[in-house]
Fold this protein.
Amino acid sequence: MKPIYKCRVCGKYVEEPVHCGKPAMLLLDAQRRVMLSKLMSGLLRHFPWEAKISLDNEGWAKIDDLVRGIRYYWRNKEQYQWVTREHVVAVALLDPKGRFEVRGDSIRARYGHSVSVRIEYEEEVKRGILYHGTRRDNIPSIMREGLKPMKRLWVHLSPTIRDAYEVGRRHGGVTIVLKISVECLRRKGHKVYRAGRNVYVTDYVPPECISLE
């Protein structure tokens, strides 16, 4: 992940060290950006209570509450005393996968939740094929039982083989990419929604809609 800069001329958050013809101000180096992004994802998707953050029914939290929770209540708060509201907003706006959404003084994770939230997604009606990356040793059970959300609210799918492979390799082991027929899902009554820039979700993928890429 690249560092984040703030343009000294227009004020935009950017990934380039020069913007509007002038050297930009370094806001977050790559290491701190990754650290903060992972923590934000965890708190907004899985364990908000560990930083005394409240999510509403649609997953929204106040940005100031998130910053306060990270700096004063998170168990490893000593590592995050540098975090400000600007850092949180910059990470959210520039996330390459669209993991976060900012609206006014609130922020939420767009997808990936294990806590109960209800987010309205736009239904995907154009794509015919999507992909899912997983460990090779999961294949027998998947081909027998289909893809289930498991500990999350949705099954997550990717638009390209490369994206699916990158997701799957995070789980370790040998990564296999599965081909998912969106047309088959529709016939079976399972709608597909776009949840992020490169992320699609559905409630369940039956075995008959899955093939090995």
